[in-house]
């Protein structure tokens, strides 16, 4: 799947990029390879496969909330550019 130069230039302008002509060629080839990879991924049969966020279901280990007093208020305020 080839992507024409006008499409690459349009994508670059949307991303606020200024590309040289040789960069348009390189990025066009790279984007074509990425899109081909997505086509291959899209062709994988996924019927009956449950959607998931990660392949390994891990329960997050949370620590207990514990209040720790902060002793350096003056130091923290001294680092601030302005006090309101």
Task: Walk me through this protein's architecture.
With 84 residues, this protein is an all-alpha fold. It has a domain at 1-44: Histone, subunit A, CATH 1.10.20. 45% of the residues lie in helices and 0% in strands. The protein has three helices and no strands. The longest helix has 22 residues, at 21-42. The chain is flat and about 60 Å long.
Number of helices: 3
Distance between the termini: 58 Å
Radius of gyration from CA coordinates: 25 Å
Low-pLDDT windows of residues: none
The appropriate CATH architecture of the domain at 1-44 is Orthogonal Bundle
Shape: flat
Structural class: mainly alpha
What helical percentage do the residues reach?
40-55%
If you average the pLDDT, what whole number results? Answer: 90
Strand content: under 5%
Q: How many DSSP E strands?
A: 0
What is this entry, summarized?
With 84 residues, this protein is mainly α. The chain contains three helices and no strands.
Keywords summarizing the entry:
84 residues, single chain, flat, mainly alpha, Histone, subunit A
Reconstruct the topology from this structure.
Elements: H1 5-14, H2 21-42, H3 73-78
